Amino acid sequence: MHLKSLSLVNYKSFDSADFEMDEKINCFVGNNGVGKTNVLDAIYHLAFAKSYFNPITIQNIKHETDFFVINGKFEKDDREENVVISAKRGNKRIAKRNGKVYEKISDHIGLLPLVIISPADRDLIIEGSETRRKFLDGVLSLDNQKYLERLINYNKLLSQRNALLKYFAANRKFDSDALAVYDEQMVALGAYIHKCRVEFLERFTPIFKDFYAKISRKADEKVDIYYKSDFLDADPATVFKDAQQKDLQIQYSTVGIHKDDLLFSLDGYPVKKYGSQGQQKSFLTALKLAQFEFIKSESGTVPILLLDDIFDKLDESRVSQLIEMVNDEQFGQLFISDTNSERTEAVIKNVNQSYKMFEL
Ligand SMILES: Nc1ncnc2c1ncn2[C@@H]1O[C@H](COP(=O)(O)OP(=O)(O)OP(=O)(O)O)[C@@H](O)[C@H]1O
What we know:
This protein has helices at residues 36-48, 123-126, 129-142, 145-171, 176-216, 236-242, 244-250, 271-274, 277-299, 310-313, 316-327, 341-349, and strands at residues 2-9, 16-20, 25-29, 67-76, 79-88, 94-97, 100-101, 114-117, 223-228, 261-266, 269-270, 304-307, 334-338, 355-359. It is of the alpha/beta class and 360 residues long. The chain has two domains: 1-113 and 307-329 and 342-359, Rossmann fold; 118-300, Up-down Bundle (Glutathione S-transferase Yfyf (Class Pi), Chain A, domain 2). Strands 2-1-4-5-6-7 form a six-stranded antiparallel beta sheet, with helices on one face. A five-stranded parallel beta sheet has the order 8-12-13-3-14, with helices on both faces. The protein has a three-stranded antiparallel beta sheet with strand order 9-10-11. The protein is globular. Bound molecules: adenosine-5'-triphosphate (ATP). Adenosine-5'-triphosphate binds next to helix 1. InterPro entries: DNA-binding_RecF, DNA-binding_RecF_CS, P-loop_NTPase, RecF/RecN/SMC_N, RecF_2.
């Protein structure tokens, strides 16, 4: 699968722009703020119907204009796929595939597998557990519609249960039957989601460790991902029951898969606190490449890879290492952004692949 052409109207810093892409490597170069990341984000938008950097759709419309349109022509399985994502102020965003509007935008997710590696990924290490759950859910739901549906249902029930807990407190009453209705459903859905997450991490973690060893070139550094969950080695129904008093007290559901987290460790210590900047960058890159590998094996399609500001993340030798890995037949189309065109071209020239440089 690859992107053949991209055209933008009023997308972020662009009035209008058209790009004919190379089938293999595309580099966007230019000074800070010229819109390199915006091009990559537009490609991300085509795959996920939202921005990687700014999830508030209307904020991606160019200032002083009313709408944006992103139009991408892809080739997938010898067929052309034309995807258009557009948004207008005051209206819902629209996703179209080959001229047909999606009724549910979530149906589009998974058609165009794509992975982005960006400096913004550091949120995965430094931010709260929600970013890590999103990462987990993002990979898991790409090829598992059932997982996504159950997760959406669980989250709906969670906000209803929280509202009920608040209602009890405000009205000084308690109805155990009403609470049990939620608990029963959330326990069943949560147990399924938990099982999927356990199985996923069992497969994902070894792939991640392999990539870390390759990128860091340090076989003696031991990285790991631990799954932290209330349901780990416990009966979900009992976990819910045991937490009931506390839930009533603080008017919030204190246990469940919405509290899950991933603990990232390096030589037994948290990467967030003890990893050097370089180690953190390698850790994140390995996470994303493992995501790439996982999606590829699950979907049977080689994802598009976006490397945003790669030199910000890794030194030159690690970038070369990365590009060499990407050069391998296992990788498909690649998009790179960097401020320094000579530096990028020097690295790209070393791999025997076709490429195109776009000076912005
Ligand atoms: N909705 C918008 N309307 C107009 N301009 C916008 C909008 N959103 C972002 N921009 C502009 O896009 C520019 C940033 O573009 P981008 O992040 O792609 O730069 P870049 O070339 O990747 O820069 P760097 O090298 O610093 O990473 C900024 O000047 C920002 O003001």
